[in-house]
Specification:
The complex is a heterodimer of chains A (about 475) and B (about 160). Chain A has two domains: about 110 residues, no CATH class; about 260 residues, no CATH class. Chain A is about 70% helix and about 0% strand. Chain A contains 22 helices and no strands. Chain B is an alpha/beta fold and about 160 residues long. Chain B has one domain: Rossmann fold. In chain B, strand 3, helix 3 and strand 4 form a beta-alpha-beta unit. In chain B, helix 3 packs parallel to helix 4. The longest helix of chain B has 18 residues. Chain B is globular, with a radius of gyration of 15 Å. The two termini of chain B are about 20 Å apart. Classes of the chains: A mainly alpha (about 475), B alpha/beta (about 160). Chain A: GO terms for molecular function: phosphate transmembrane transporter activity. Chain A: InterPro entries: Cit_transptr-like_dom (IPR004680), SLC13A/DASS (IPR001898). Chain A: Pfam families: CitMHS.
Chain lengths: ~475, ~160
């Protein structure tokens, strides 16, 4: 009997032209600041500039995986800008441990808790069952059903990764899609899910990695934002953009009399393990929402379910292994990069390149949001946040605006990019179903993302100010 | 990278019937045919050289030269095809052949001729999905050929980038 099959060969992916160019340009861009004396920039700043340029090129071209670039950033900072630097003599440098510490930054711990709860929700079928129960009030006609679908997708996406939310909702919706006539109605339903998953991700700190990157950078500057504080800043925008997206998608794609049956059976797991999970997850969310009452920071609260779920064996070592470690590493790389840019004096030098104060504040914010949306349309949202959050926060030093507003704006803008299949994983899923032509995705992404970006840049800062949130 | 499906069948009419019934997959995966085991091995070499992956084999048993079951057993020690799912499509395998196919070739499905086209398509879809799941491949490029709802589980722990 041959029960032991041979081990399949591991085939390395071949690099595309863009990736090869990215590697080459990355190496060249890395060497230039080290080889040439840059006026006005200290040696530490020059080293950091080399790392930053390399990171830009690798993250933009994805010449190596995004998380690999993140680990490279940390390694290079240790080898060039720490007490263990290979070449010293540029004054006192922080200990290597301070760079490695990015992997255990409180924001990473917060995400660890968020991920474990999200994975548990899937393991115990809570995500699908909640979707089934919450969809019921929206049954009736197609437009109302799509509103329900978007509301539930967004709600899940606030606590679960956008990708996993889209996967769960598509698993529910694909059989229903098949019952609709081919054409605009299917396109509308299949677009509603990624749009709601992307936009829902802005709602809480654990909703999407750019939020974590902004939070981490703000905390490093002593400008921490609580869980509920973030929600007050982001949820109003989220709701308005969702409603607008629903109005746009249904008016464009779904006729008022389209029949659509979205009846799902809920079958809640009532096993002891599942009940313990509901209690732990519910308590964690409650503690996150009530931080002003008890003062326990959201990261500390996030670590409680990690301990409780593992101790009760509701979540196992296997579940721990399956966590999205690449995302945590990517966020850690961004936090380390941001810290390095601040510590090395590179931030002041970069901002000094242009006289930003010559521009009106509103135009500057519009520019910042525009660049964030534009870049994250074509590259990863998290990589965009990794590159732009540190820059935006340095920029904010010289501006008559709260740095928190600027950091949050960049993070939210990264999540509003959804015009292409490559913009976000939920878009890629929708596109792969074959129900959404690229042109439809581009149009909805441009209209909905553009609406959100204008609102974010022009209305949100005054709203935040008027509500006394900053 | 495309997923490849190999039809191993010596009778031309049966090969053509299989290809016709599997037409819904034609634009989403690579469909290959071979009339004997020697040709099948060449096809596997071609698939591998193009950077594609053999995901599923539909093999007849009684063939000129090496039998279908012996071929399926040999696949298990071929690093290019050891994970491929296998379906025996035959009217002529006796009990001993069938036992060897299950125990030694780890046969996944058995289809007796004549087959029902819809059931065959459904079976192929399931097996392609199982292949993608067992190799933890990105299901998105192959989604139209897969059980899309089942393939979504692969995306659960992918994370936002």
């Amino acid at each position: 009997m041959t029960t032991s099959s041979v081990r399949p060969r591991v085939a390395l992916p071949s690099l595309t032209l863009v990736q090869r160019l990215g590697l080459l340009a990355g190496v060249v861009a890395f060497i230039i600041p080290l080889a040439i004396d840059i006026p006005g920039l200290e040696p530490a700043g020059e080293r950091m500039l080399a790392i930053f340029l390399l990171a830009i090129l690798l993250w933009v071209t994805e010449a190596i995986p995004l998380y690999a670039t993140a680990t490279l950033v940390i390694l290079l900072q240790v080898l060039m800008l720490s007490d263990q630097a290979l070449v010293g003599g540029i004054g006192p440098l922080p200990p290597a441990a301070s760079y490695f510490a990015a992997l255990a930054n409180p924001v990473i711990i917060l995400f660890l808790g968020g991920f474990l709860i999200a994975d548990g929700a899937h393991k115990y079928g809570l995500d699908r069952n909640l979707a089934a129960v919450l969809l019921r009030p929206f049954a009736g006609n197609a437009r109302r059903s799509v509103l329900g679908l978007m509301a539930i997708t967004a709600l899940l996406s606030m606590f679960v990764s956008n990708t996993a939310t889209a996967a769960t909702m598509f698993a529910v919706v694909i059989p229903i899609l098949a019952a609709l006539p081919t054409g605009p109605a299917r396109t509308g339903v299949a677009l509603a899910i990624p749009v709601a998953a992307n936009v829902g991700g802005i709602g809480t700190p654990v909703g999407s990695p750019p939020n974590a990157i902004a939070l981490g950078a703000l905390e490093a500057q002593g400008q921490g934002v609580s869980f509920i504080g973030w929600m007050f800043l982001a949820v109003p925008l989220m709701l308005v953009v969702l409603l607008f997206a629903w109005w746009f998608l249904t008016r464009r794609y779904i006729k008022a009399d389209t029949p659509l049956v979205l009846e799902l059976s809920a079958n809640f797991d009532r096993s002891p393990a599942a009940i313990i999970f509901y209690v732990i997850a519910g308590s964690t969310v409650l503690l996150w929402l009530t931080e002003p009452l008890h003062g326990i920071s959201s990261s500390t609260v996030g670590f409680i379910p990690v301990v409780a779920l593992l101790a009760t064996q509701v979540m196992s070592a296997d579940d721990l292994r399956r966590l999205q470690w690449p995302v945590l590493w990517l966020v850690a790389g961004g936090i380390a990069l941001g810290a390095g840019i601040g510590n090395s004096g590179l931030d002041a030098w970069l901002i000094g390149l242009l006289s930003w104060d010559a521009l009106p504040l509103a135009l500057l914010l519009l520019l910042l949001v525009g660049v964030s949306v534009g870049l994250s349309t074509v590259i990863s949202n998290s990589a965009t946040a990794n590159l732009l959050v540190p820059l935006a926060l340095s920029l904010a030093i010289g501006l008559p605006i709260d740095p928190t507003a600027v950091g949050v704006m960049v993070a939210l803008a990264c999540s509003l990019a959804m015009a292409l299949p490559i913009s976000t994983p939920p878009n890629a899923v929708a596109y792969a179903t074959g129900e959404v032509p690229t042109s439809a995705m581009a149009l909805s992404g441009f209209v909905i993302g553009g609406f959100g970006a204008l609102l974010l840049a022009l209305a949100m800062p005054s709203l935040w100010g008027a509500l006394g949130l900053l | 990278m495309r997923l490849a499906l190999l039809i191993l069948e010596d009778e031309r009419a049966v090969r053509e019937a299989l290809r016709r019934d599997l037409a819904p997959f034609a634009s989403h995966i690579r469909l290959e045919e071979a009339e004997d085991v020697e040709t099948a091995r060449d096809v596997i070499t071609e698939i591998d050289a193009d950077g594609d992956q053999l995901a599923l084999v539909l093999a007849d048993h009684r063939l000129p030269g090496t039998s279908g079951v012996d071929f399926l057993i040999s696949l298990r020690t071929d690093e290019r095809a050891s994970m491929a799912r296998t379906i025996l499509v035959t009217g002529q395998a006796d009990q001993e052949d069938t036992i060897r196919a299950i125990n030694e070739a780890q046969l996944d499905r058995y289809v007796a001729k004549p087959w029902q086209p819809e059931l065959l398509c459904q079976m192929v879809r399931e097996q392609l999905t199982d292949y993608v799941v067992s190799r933890r491949l990105d299901p998105l490029p192959h989604l139209p050929a897969l059980d899309a709802a089942a393939a979504m589980t692969l995306l659960q722990d992918r994370g936002d980038f």
